[in-house]
Amino acid sequence: MNGIHDLGGMHGMGPIAPPAEEPVFKFDWERKVFALFCPAALAAGFNVDEFRHAIEQMDPAHYLESSYYEHWLASFETLMVEKGVLTQEELDARYDELKGAA
Amino acid sequence: MPVLTKEMAPAIIAGGIPANMDDDVAASFKPGDKVLTRNINPVTHTRLPRYARGKEGTIHMCHGVFHTPDTIAHGKGHHPQQLYSVAFEARELWGDDASGRDKIYIDLWDDYMTKVT
Amino acid sequence: MPHDHNHSHTEPPSDVVLRVKALESLLLEKDLIDPEALDLIADAFEHKIGPRNGARVVAKAWTDPEYLERLRTDATAAIAELGFSGLQGEHMAVVENTSTVHNMTVCTLCSCYPWPTLGLPPVWYKSAPYRSRVVVDPRSVLAEFDVSVPDDKEIRVWDSSAELRYLVLPERPEGTEGWTEDQLIDLVTRDSMIGTGFPKTPTDIQ
């Protein structure tokens, strides 16, 4: 699809600004999301191209604003629902529950 | 539903998930062949970047037979086909302001290209 | 009771943290994930697998002509000889820098990167500025890394659109004649294997 992910040749994305050092995972949630890839793929039965395509379907503005592992999280959420492992209602209800408790 | 256990994890990390296939599928191109990439704009998944559509390149090398992202992303089968590294002159992709020396190499599937004769 | 905390109790967890917790807790309840497996996977890429692996490949290629030849003919097998294989390195290709060619790698469509040899990619490699610019203007990208490649040198940018993962084999620095593989490893930087840097020189590490 002609999506926002297809970035090659675009202008205006700003400087690269590579830092001298950076941790492998900046936050604990990133570590969790990274580690979920293989277990989630096996449990839900999705392949890497379904995973990539689910990222491509993110809202384009949000794609550019969000961090890398949030792309993975969005893909997992989409695929878990698409593959019938979880329902959107389950995810939303659990989110609301956690938010209320926070 | 299958669960990835801690006993399985080391083998998956070290073994990975290979994408090549044993199917014997003929190659439409060989190294040195001039090819033209198709101008396709599917709403579905593809690994032919927009910047390399409708462009002329040269087959650099054959990687062998691989499954096809465009079909497996949509539950439409593996569609095994040849995969190539294709070299494009920077000026072919970006016009005369680009360096006349630089090249961009992209991995592309047989279906994405036609032969230029 | 006073106690140490490295997090704040006053700020609510962010939306994304809650989404991760929601997903994780539901998968746990349904017995679809093994927390020990998750920890093992994260730990492997956080602490065990990193650019030191790729540096070993490069240093061996610099000192062992027969290994270099094997790397050219079957990079996946040659890299596996050293014990580096697996996820996101199932199919490897090595591209060699020479006096006339400088190679760079990118994944413009997502974030493909050779995990077994380089570990997980830095954030900039996965971000829009690098992915958008390196194919159209590699020389300005190199300038941001303080790398200068002469105009008469060819730059080859490898966009890893398939499952092939590319490792740049940088040129061996001058002044390292007679150095052993173990000494040379310390000169090989992550960026020199992506193509956004050069290896260190003997004077750099003195």
Keywords:
heterotrimer, A: 102 residues, mainly alpha, Cyclin A, domain 1, 5 helices, B: 117 residues, alpha+beta, five-stranded antiparallel beta sheet, 5 strands
Structure notes:
With 102 residues, chain A is mostly helical. Chain A has helices at residues 28-44, 48-56, 60-65, 68-82, 88-101. In chain A, α1 (28-44) runs parallel beside α4 (68-82) and α2 (48-56) packs across α4 (68-82). The model of chain A has no long low-confidence stretch (mean pLDDT 96). With 117 residues, chain B is an alpha+beta fold. Chain B has helices at 9-15, 69-72, 90-94, and strands at residues 34-37, 56-66, 81-89, 103-109, 113-115. Chain B has a five-stranded antiparallel beta sheet with strand order 4-3-2-1-5. Chain B is elongated. Chain C is of the alpha/beta class. Chain C has one domain: Nitrile Hydratase, Chain A (Alpha-Beta Complex). Chain C is built from eleven helices and four strands; from the N terminus they run αααααββααααββαα. In chain C, strands 1-4 form a two-stranded parallel sheet. A two-stranded parallel ribbon of chain C has the order 2-3. In chain C, α3 (51-63) crosses α4 and α4 packs across α5 (75-81). Chains in contact: A-B, A-C, B-C. The interface between A and C is large, with 50 and 52 residues.
